[in-house]
Amino acid sequence: MSITNKITVKRAEIAVAVILALCSIALMIKSAENRITWNAEENMGAGFLPFYLSLGMFICTILTIIKFVLKRSPQSKDDSPFIDAVAFKFIAVTIISLVVLVLAIGYLGIYFSLIFFLAFYLRYFSEKSISFITIFAITTPILTFLFFEWMLKIPLPQGVSEPLFYPVYDFMYGGFSFAVKMIFIILTVLLPTALVFLTSRFIK
């Protein structure tokens, strides 16, 4: 019997629910090491979003486990194979690439690791052009940086790439006007698209 036949819908549901419940608990404990409050006097704590998102995920997994134990869900009584061989291959590649991403974040930082992850993932699973993949892989980390570190003031892991962001921080917290900062954001977001366009047009 192949591994895909051993992984039934019933086994997959309870296994994923338990794993997600354990991960939720671990994330809540880790998030609670930082401030998880958000009020008018203080900005959002670094652990606020991770903690409450993990709490929501934990509640959902507990409900899934209860329904499984009580045999209330169709999946809890389904002994058919969960995935076929082709789907298993894609899942395996996804899991391995995510593990590599997590390990890379500790060294390269989340932004550069995300570029490589998105480029590989889109290239492997989609039929998008190289230009689209390049633009998407570079623009997404830029938007992630602007959202978390500029708008929410929540720093994300940067690893050895942290010194590269010092000039950006100087600009973010410097005495520049709001209009100048908005122009900088727009140009930064559009820069990858412009570079890819120029490269594809003038470099054969």
Tell me, rounded to a whole number, the average pLDDT: 83
Largest sheet: none
Q: What sequence of helices (H) and strands (E) makes up the elements?
A: HHHHHHHH
Low-confidence stretches: none
- Helical content band: over 70%
Summed up, the helix count is 8
What's the total count of β strands?
0
Terminal-residue CA separation: 51 Å
What overall geometry do the principal axes of the alpha carbons give? flat
Domains, number = 2
Structural class: mainly alpha
CA-based gyration radius: 22 Å
Oligomerization state: single chain
Strand content of the residues, in percent?
A: under 5%
Write the layout of secondary structure elements.
Layout: H1 3-6, H2 9-31, H3 48-69, H4 85-108, H5 110-125, H6 130-151, H7 166-172, H8 178-202
Helix pairs in contact: 2-3, 4-5, 5-6, 6-8
